[in-house]
Amino acid sequence: MKTNEVKDLQVLSANIRLDILKMLSSLGYGHLGGSMSIVEVLSVLYGKYMRYDASHPTWDKRDMLVLSKGHAGPALYATLANRGFFDKEMLYTLNAGGTKLPSHPDRTKTPGVDMTTGSLGQGTSSAAGIATGFKLKGTDQKVYLIVGDGELNEGQCWEAFQYIAHNKLNNCLVFIDNNKRQLDGYVSDICNPFDIEAKMKAFGFHTVTVDGANEKAIIDAIELSFDVKDQAICIVLDTIKGQGVPFFEKLEANHSVKFNTDEIKQATSEAITSLEAFIAKEGA
Amino acid sequence: MFRLDVNRDDTQEMRMSVVHALQDLMKENDKVVALEADLGGASGWTNIQKTNPDRFINVGIAEANMVGVAAGLSATGFVPFIHTFGPFATRRVFDQVYLSGAYAYNTINIYGSDPGFTAGPNGGTHTTWEDVALMRTIPNAVVCDAADDVQMDWIIKEFAKLEGIHYVRGNRKGVKNLYAKDSTFTLGKANILREGDDVLLLSAGQLVSEALQAANELASEGIDVEVMDMFTIKPLDVDAILKHSQGKKHIVVFENHSITGGLGSAVAEVVAEKAMAIPLTRVGVHELFGQVGSQDFLQKEFGLTKEDIKQKIKELTIV
């Protein structure tokens, strides 16, 4: 690993987080919590591992990413903008009539979005199909699948996991964003998934749990996964909903945040200042 | 061009027509993939597994996943065909077909087998009388009902040329022969099988043969029935309806489907919107669930036999 690589990825994470905050606060509302918890994994994937050509988003040799927890679209959009798929100005069209950035990803509208998602659970099967397609083509392309822990309520996830494990699709890296909360509260209160890693192991996956806020830890897990040749791979990301901004981590209902109180506006402003300072210091 | 040949002796089961069509396609196009949800023995698709093992995927008993895998295959340039029983291919996976398929502009070709009374001994849980109603509402989806093995072969091969969501329903088992081998059709164009002056009788699927026989028998009773095979229920051949209803005393739609949302509804929409002022009668299933029994029993039970349609037309035409 290059000396500055982790630092560079931390700066990319900060930029993604900054743009999420700016686009959602500018809009006045949005799916903040679940966007913030996948910032680091998106940074590592788009900043280090994925093969793509931002100027040719439909390049047929590219790796693909399926954001099955589609409500975290803003995090994906901020990542794609930071990686040059489109201008950052477009981020401020989120959810506007006629926008190329709908609340949930649409592969027909947004450069760099590989699969349409939003109806939870469905992206898992789409990713399974993409991985199958890559295998049938005989290429070493990969598909990266990000699933929410709340999303695991959906039965289709488990249909897809059985398929991915049975077919030993090691070209489909399954990331589960274990941020502990879903729309109505804690996953353990609403429909307890119990030990997610143990469940995935029982389903036949090679599994590992890592600190999902730590780029280095995510890199290490991905590197180890490349040694797994005959088994599907699941990386459980131990994350916090609202990750990276203590105020939003503590905010009770942070699935969808309305930026309409002085307290929230103040916290957002401070977080933006802090991220900008980090980027100025470390990104130079 | 199509030609009628009800007496040909080379009939094959509808499922084998699908199997052979897919095997033919796979010889020419290495992007064609067949997906099953553990009904390979029932659909005959295990034959594809034997001839094209790397182009056959059995996802297990997981229809929603099968649709999603098909969507992902489409996103990587493949042309997926999926099969399961009609209700599971439509009702059970409607959101997957709608979003992962149609909304995402992926291509998925769907064979939903054993529609309506043809579910036979599999009974009410395996019966669909609403598949056409559901699939018609998906933007730009193509919806077909195959009248016989020849037409099924053509439909499957035609689907492989197109992008989008394409659904064909059809019995797995053998049905009456209707078309001559090598007949060709045009998607979205109705076939006039018999001309007549009194009644325009529209049907689709295997009931077309019943409709044609009924019309031939009614002729000897002085009732002249024109028979239209509307094998493409969507996009509907509106021009054919307008043209061929001219001068008719009645329009009758005969369908192995609920009269809510199926071919009868589609025709009624045209008749109403064009203010055609011709009485329309829908003969199909109304507010009933399926049940178990032989195909013959169920066809009678639900009033979908040649005798039923003959009787209905006689009632309508006696002034």
Task: Kindly summarize this structure in a few lines.
The complex is a heterodimer of chains A (284) and B (319). With 284 residues, chain A is an alpha/beta fold.
CATH architecture of the largest domain in chain B: 3-Layer(aba) Sandwich
| Uncertain stretches of chain B | none
Mean pLDDT of chain B: 97
Give the percentage of residues in beta strands of chain A: 5-15%
| Biggest beta sheet attributes of chain A | 5 strands, parallel
Strand tally of chain A is: 9
Q: What multimeric state do the chains show?
A: heterodimer
- Count of discrete alpha- or pi-helical segments spanning 4 or more residues of chain B: 13
Query: Mean pLDDT score of chain A, rounded?
Result: 97
Radius of gyration of chain A: 18 Å
Q: Could you give the count of β-strands of chain B?
A: 12
CATH topology of the largest domain in chain B, by name, is: Rossmann fold
Based on secondary structure, the structural category of chain B is: alpha/beta
CATH C-level of the largest domain in chain B: Alpha Beta
Overall radius of gyration of chain B: 19 Å
Largest interface: A-B, 34 and 30 residues
**What is the terminal-to-terminal distance of chain A?**
20 Å
Query: What is the helix/strand order of chain A?
Result: HEHHEHHEHEEEHHEHEHEH
Number of domains of chain A: 1
CATH class of chain A: Alpha Beta
Global shape of chain B: globular
